[in-house]
Structures are given as structure tokens and as C-alpha cells.
């Protein structure tokens, strides 16, 4: 639930958030430190107190900065995803799901996501780049109102699995690295691996806009950002 807790901390606008943990829990401490928590002392029960403060966010590392994104970025991208994949990969951003169901599914999936694409040409994304997640509505009508940017992430890793038919990673390693962060089964991943170009992006799920605040295609087009549906 760490992602949900940090989202709530951000939205509540509290200055600090803290957790307590006994020194013997090395893996848990390592996880807290990865997300920018620092030990500031011990309480009366002998637990380490780990604190994260808005005023000392380390923006050099997307995980330490989570759930925030640095405001001085010079380039941001967009990742279009069909709704049937979007709603499984980004459960908090699904348009009609109930809050209780969202929290349970997000806790299982975590905040690190893997997006796998099969582009026709080379990718233009960069590590550390913020990206908007564009949910492509797959119905027959109403696309311009129902297709929308729902979420925002940070790219933390880029793996070119295959380039013009040449594999740079074995199928076994591809499936292993995708792990449980993707919506695809091992069998589906094997099918994707047959494509000429395969790219795997690891994303940090920084947040979502929420119902009524998503940026629909109509608004993007009217402001000259899209000539057509991505």
C-alpha cells in the first residue's frame, strides 16, 4: 500500500510522512530508503523512525522523489494504451472502478509498471522523462470525448528487446524481466517476442487525474497538440 499512502500524503499537503521499523527488517528498510525515507532517530520501543519531507525531496532519483515529479523538466512524452490494457495496468486510473476495488488491485500491482511496445521505428523516450498515459477508447463512437490522458509516470528504465529482428535479450530474460509488472502472460510475451521491434519501458506510476479531471482528446486537439488520434 506504499503507493496509496504516499499519494494520500501528497494530496493531504502534509509536510512530512513517517514510518517506524525495527532494525532487523533489512529488506523493508531498503525499500523505504529507495523511496526517499531517511532515518531520523529511534522511538521508545526501539524502532527506527524513517521520515520523508516535502522540503528535502531528492529529484535526482524518480523513486526517491515519488510521488512527485520535478517541475523543471524540459521534455515530456505521451504513451497511448488501448483501454483493455490501460485499465489492467493502471487500475487507479480506470474510469468507472470503485475505490475499494482500486486500492486492493493497486496494492497487488505496485507502483512500478512495465509497458511493452512494438514500434515501427526507434523510440524517442528517455530515462527520467515524465510521460502522460493516454487511454485509447476502443468503442465505435465518441473517441474524442472518451479517449483521454488519465495518468502521469516517470520512465525509469528502457530495454530494447529486439531491433529490426535482431534480439538483444533472450526470451527467457525478457519474460523474467517483465515479471508481474506487465499485463501480459508469459505466453502472450512469447508472442510479442516474435515481432521485429520490441521495447520494454519501466514506469513509475506517479499519479492520476481522476474522474472529471482527465484531459480528453477534444481539448488536446483544440489546443493544437494532436492532429489525429495517437
Following the backbone from N to C, one meets helices and strands in this order, namely HEHEEHEHHEEHEEHHEEH
Overall pLDDT score: 88
The CATH topology of the largest domain turns out to be Archaeosine Trna-guanine Transglycosylase, Chain: A, domain 4
Oligomeric state of the chains in view? single chain
Strand content: 25-35%
Class per helix and strand makeup: alpha+beta
Low-confidence parts, pLDDT < 50 over ≥5 residues?
97-108
H/I helix tally:
9
Global shape: globular
- Structurally, how many domains make up the residues? 2
Classified by CATH, the class of the largest domain is Mainly Beta
Number of strands: 10
CA radius of gyration is 19 Å
For the report, how would you describe the main beta sheet?
7 strands, mixed
- How helical, in percent, are the residues? 25-40%
Q: Which CATH architecture of the largest domain? A: Roll
Q: Termini, distance in Å?
A: 33 Å
